[in-house]
Amino acid sequence: MHSKQQTTRRRFMGQTLGTVAAANVSSWFSAEPAPAAEVRPAAASGKRLLLSQLGGDRATGYVMSNKIARRDGNLLCTWLDVERQNQWAVVDPVRGEIVRTGAVGERRVDNHCGAAIATDTDGTLHLLIGAHHGAFVYYRMLPDKQEWEPVEDGRAVGKSATYPSLICDGSGTLHVTYRLETKGRDPQLHYCRRPKGGKWSEPRALVRMAVSEHSWLTNAIEVGESGRLHVVFSNTLPVPGQGADARYFGASHLYSDDSGLTWRQFGDAEPLTLPADARGLKRIESPAMPPERIEAHYSQSGALALTSYYHKMALSNPVVDQRGRPWVVLHNILTGDALLYRCEDERRWVAIPLRESVQALLPGYRIRHCGQLSRHRVGTIEVVLMVSPEAEVAWGATGTTLVRLVVDADGRITHQEMVCPPEPGVPNWLPSLERWYPHAPIERPALLYTRGINAGGGAKNINDVKTEVWLQLPTVGS
After folding, report:
1. Contact 392, 429 (CB under 8 A)
2. What is the pLDDT of residues 459-478, one digit of tens each?
3. Cα separation of 437 and 175, whole Å?
4. Which residues contact 91 (CB under 8 A, 6 or more apart)?
5. Is 269 exposed, middle or buried (0-12, 13-18, 19+ CB in 10 A)?
6. What is the spatial distance between Cα 452 and Cα 81, in angstroms, rounded to a whole number?
């Protein structure tokens, strides 16, 4: 069996964080285990449930991969455990109980191999098990079933693939974008599709990046109510006149109105010739190169330090509002800042500053990598941000915590709250905010996140660090 099901009942722990499993850290990583957590004052309006104390150090990563779906009024959540096995749990949000758990697929090669979930029009749940420079594996859970089943044509989706972003459109077609790299270099944005009742397509290159080094693309795909597909990705560029080591950290957007057959940018009369050269693409933030987004000397040294590679983690996932406008968070890791962009009239991107709202809750904190976006049924936009003290700049630094913001259709921030108070010895990070689907609307999104240290990329991304996996129910203000 590909899914070993267990049945369990566990009550909500409210605002209590519970105790953290002592982290067994490999010899190359020097850190003390996180202490047992105390009961703390309530920071957020949503109840929280501890799903696991055996999560891996990237349990709920990454930003482009949705990890929460609805089934018969329950929440189905997935994460990667310390043994690199994808786990899942079904939660009854009314009773406050975990009602079913299991594993899906085989043990994976490293901590980059978490799953991505999408919901079909008929209630089928689709799941791609992640890979790291490999192939994804496709499973589904039919509406009348409670187990994941492998699909014949889904044994090897994608090539040299990492970071799946999976959606299902209103016709039941699956779409996935991912990063392809050859021997850790020459990054490309790739795309596959699977029509309802059909088979997975061969991979198609959408964009060839302008830099040849190992790169984050923070690639993510979304679909609007019209069926239009939106893709966002980090667009790292050389800087003319500033030497071979200079890098500009920006982002670009593509869209498709024919279910992924052709791709365009806003304002262009003709579709792009694929693969597009990233140098020639319009950027979300500006046609110019703002100096605050330029790093003069790109560095790839230091396994646990915040190297230049991490500066490419520039984006949240996108979300599409009731008017068909795409929204996305664009980060600047160099400055610890972020802007929420929305596109008006299919021609101009309007920026909404976010740092002030974060610092109203946590003075002196900065915004770090990989925010998350979703929608409420009433049309408001929800943002979840990872934040940390100004001096703590590493990805998943101790003291990192999560902030939720609610934004109205005009870009006004109407509500802000912490998910949990900062903890000096441990990060609360890697948020996964439940995605919005036009054919499966939700009142408000649930939130999954990891409590525990980041072991870094040493030892080929294999370690025995244990973390906690937490679920916060969707009761944030509107």
Report:
1. no
2. 788 999 999 999 999 864 44
3. 13
4. 49, 51, 74, 75, 76, 77, 97, 98, 99, 471
5. exposed
6. 12
pLDDT at residue 110, as a whole number? 94
Long-range contacts of residues 195-203, Cβ cutoff 8 Å, at least 24 apart = 195/171, 196/120, 196/171, 196/172, 197/172, 199/153, 200/138, 200/153, 200/154, 200/157, 203/158, 203/159, 203/161
The total domain count for the chain is 1
Q: Cα 257 vs. chain centroid, distance in angstroms?
A: 24
Q: Does 29 reside within a domain?
A: no
Task: Report residue 107 as tokens.
Answer: 């043990």
Establish if 136 belongs to a structural domain.
yes
CATH number of the structural domain spanning residue 115: 2.120.10
| Rounded distance between C-alpha atoms, residue 402 and residue 251, angstroms | 23
Pairing of strands 97-104, 86-92: antiparallel
Q: What 8-state DSSP symbol labels residue 357?
A: H
Q: Do 61 and 114 touch, CB atoms closer than 8 A?
A: yes
The residue segments making up the domain with residue 294 are 52-359
Amino acid at residue number 364: G
Contact predicate 107/4, CB 8 Å: no
Residue 124 φ then ψ, to 5°: -60, 135
Give how far Cα 158 sits from Cα of 108, 126, 142, 199, Å. 16, 16, 23, 13
Count Cβ neighbours within 10 Å for each residue of 198-220 and write b for 16 or more, e otherwise. Answer: eebbebeebbbbbbebebbbbbb
pLDDT of residue 460: 83
Contact of 210 with 188, CB cutoff 8 Å: no
Cβ–Cβ < 8 Å for 181, 160: yes
Cβ neighbourhood burial of 67 (10 Å; 0-12, 13-18, 19+): buried
Please report the pLDDT score of residue 470 as a whole number: 98
Is residue 263 one of the residues assigned to a domain? yes
Which residues in the chain show pLDDT less than 70?
A: 1-45, 301-306, 475-478
Q: Give the pLDDT confidence score for residue 43 in this predicted structure.
A: 46
SS3 316: coil
Q: Which two tokens stand for residue 70?
A: 């609805």
Specify the pLDDT at position 351: 98
442 within some domain: no
This prediction's pTM: 0.91
* 475 to 39, 41, 210, 361, 417: CA distances (angstroms): 21, 17, 42, 19, 11
DSSP state of 232: E
